[in-house]
Design brief:
This protein has helices at residues 5-17, 82-86, 94-108, 125-136, 141-147, 158-166, 179-187, 207-216; strands at 30-40, 43-52, 59-64, 73-79, 111-116, 172-175, 192-196. The protein is α/β, with parallel strands linked by helices. The protein has a seven-stranded mixed beta sheet with strand order 1-2-3-5-4-6-7, sandwiched between helices. It is globular.
Amino acid sequence: MGLSPLTIQQLLDESREHNCAGFGKEHICMRIAAIADLPSRFGHFQIVAFYNHVDHREHVAIVSGNVVDAEDVPVRIHSECLTGDALGSLRCDCRDQLETALRAIDEMGLGVVLYMRQEGRGIGLTNKIRAYGLQDRGYDTVEANLALGFQDDEREYSAAAHMLASLRIRSIRLMTNNPRKIEALRQLGVRVTGRIPHVIPPNEHNRFYLETKARKSGHMLPLDFSKLEQDEPPIVLSAKERPQP
């Protein structure tokens, strides 16, 4: 069972009256604009549209089950990737990560995918294409970002933290391989009670990219993907990690 009509109306009413000092250094305050059903090829969800008063970016939460006031909710924070998500680029694993997360939370019956408008690990679409050009000349993904004057990861999670608070989620288990993301959310006041590994088998085009993320950015990924069987499930939940009915 998802969010009931009464719960939806309560969330919309609370958001309409909501006014806070904001999250993070930019004091971002998110508000829920709309909630609707979202039947998809990955399962049946509800989609929650958010906006904010600082940069006016629109983000969405894709929700399975009734997450309001729930604890240990499986959550995937997915940063927008036009080339991967929409165009099917093989240079990254973003589309596979998104689709795998959606299928997983549908199967679990409870969870959220936050789709954040942070293209190119926060450097924007044009700069991401510039970074691709540098990678074509031999740079790895970290070197390319640094050469363009950015950090290897410019993403910020204040909006995501506020979105979780707006949905009244008490605590989460984050679907991630990135320890920086866990720490960033905790610093913003999110109770992260566990991690669900989110490892996607590589292809010939993104293997070096993923190995660089493990080697240079600290992602919890195999340094030798050849040991990862191609038919191994991308997400493996232990009995302890599975949500309880």
